[in-house]
Amino acid sequence: MFDELLNLIKQNGQQAVVDNNEVPNEHNDAVMQEAQTSIVDGLSNIKEPDQVNSLFESVRSGQAESNPAVQQISNNFSGNIMQKFGINGSTAAAIASAIIPVVLAKMANKGGQGGAGGFDLGGLLGSLTGGKFGGGNLGGSTPSSGGGLGGNLGSMGAKLGLDKDGDGDVDLNDLTKMFK
């Protein structure tokens, strides 16, 4: 799922990153990976059903940039690429606004015109929250009662020894610990 997210970012980041003279070519891939990390981190920090509903509604209605969660993800992404790659503030903000809301919208509107071809925001959100939210249920964007796909993957991952922080689920914290 994370590879699919990165591919979606690369498809939508060509003009904002690769064709941007303000981004040194040697940093193109790293900037795209930073976008992925920012999206994953931002989505994993969503804790309330109202935040999930608001995110889905704003992304689907084309108002993603006004959503506080999307703004937070974009701000974190632009701050990180400024710090890590020396990209100036206005360029970093432009890159963030060209990638983050667009990618989230394509994920939320999967399969539709210009959609992400089977990748969905609900599924990613479900996997990041152990099935608490999302789980592939995009209809009402409500927490799934049975854990959904994300809950099933999380419990399977815990049984396979992927629960690196010992909290009983497999989530972004475990993924982070795998690479340290």
Structure in words:
The two termini are 21 Å apart. Helix 1 (2-18) crosses helix 2 (28-44) and helix 2 (28-44) runs antiparallel to helix 4. The protein is 62% helix and 0% strand. The protein is an all-alpha fold. Mean pLDDT is 74; it is low at 111-118 and 135-157. The chain contains 8 helices and no strands.
What is the topological layout?
Layout: H1 2-18, H2 28-44, H3 49-60, H4 68-85, H5 89-108, H6 121-128, H7 148-159, H8 172-178
Helix pairs in contact: 1-2, 1-5, 2-4, 4-5, 6-7
**Span between N and C termini?**
21 Å
Give helix % range.
Answer: 55-70%
**How many helices does DSSP assign?**
8
Q: How would you sum up the major sheet? A: none
| Rg (CA only) | 16 Å
> DSSP strand (E) fraction?
under 5%
Structural class: mainly alpha
The ordered string of helix (H) and strand (E) elements is HHHHHHHH
In the predicted model, the low-confidence regions spanning at least 5 consecutive residues are 111-118, 135-157
Shape: globular
User: What is the assembly state of the chains in this entry?
Assistant: single chain
Describe the structure concisely.
With about 180 residues, the protein is an all-alpha fold. Helices cover about 60% and strands about 0% of the residues. Residues about 110-120 and about 135-155 have low confidence and may be disordered.
Q: What are the main properties of this structure?
A:
mainly alpha; 180 residues; 8 helices; 0% strand
